[in-house]
Structures are given as C-alpha cells and as structure tokens.
Write a structure and sequence with these properties.
4 helices; elongated; mainly alpha
Length: 86
C-alpha cells in the first residue's frame, strides 16, 4: 500500500475529520481513507439513474410474476394519512 501526505488542510476540516473518526471508531488515517473512498464511489454513481444503479446491484436477477404483481398492487395503494401529533 502506498502513503499519501496531505498538506494545507485547514483547522476546521481537520477537526471535522477527527470528530468523524471518533464517531466511527477509526483512526484519523482510516477515516480519511473511508471518506475519500465514499466520495469516489459517489462520484462514479453520478450520471446514473436509480434504475441503472439497481440493475448494477441486481445483475441478471429477475423478479417473479407474483413479486411484480405485489409491487404493482403496492404502488396503487392510496397514500397513508399523515400522523396527528396534536
């Protein structure tokens, strides 16, 4: 594995990264790697529709007819009434 030295990180960003590392139980280096990886993965998804991303996850898997009927029935159900918090 290679090393990467980051210079010129402002104090606010460093504090934010340290807090994120603490919340996630990681070292500062592990957190930086996780954050960079997540940003790059998100960037790769850019420009894809939700359907394209779903197809990438499901691959060649197909829904059965009864599953498609259940999805269609669910989509036609009326919306729930919002909860009343009074």
């Amino acid at each position: 594995m290679g090393d990467l030295l980051l210079r010129g990180i402002d104090d606010a960003l460093k504090v934010e990264l340290q807090e994120s590392a603490r919340r996630n139980g990681r070292s500062l280096s592990e957190e930086a790697i996780a954050q960079i990886r997540a940003a790059l993965e998100k960037e790769q998804d850019h420009g894809q529709t939700a359907g394209q991303r779903l197809r990438a996850v499901l691959g060649n898997a197909k829904f059965e007819d009864d599953e498609l009927r259940a999805i269609d029935a669910f989509r036609k159900q009326p919306d729930r009434t919002p909860p009343d918090f009074t």
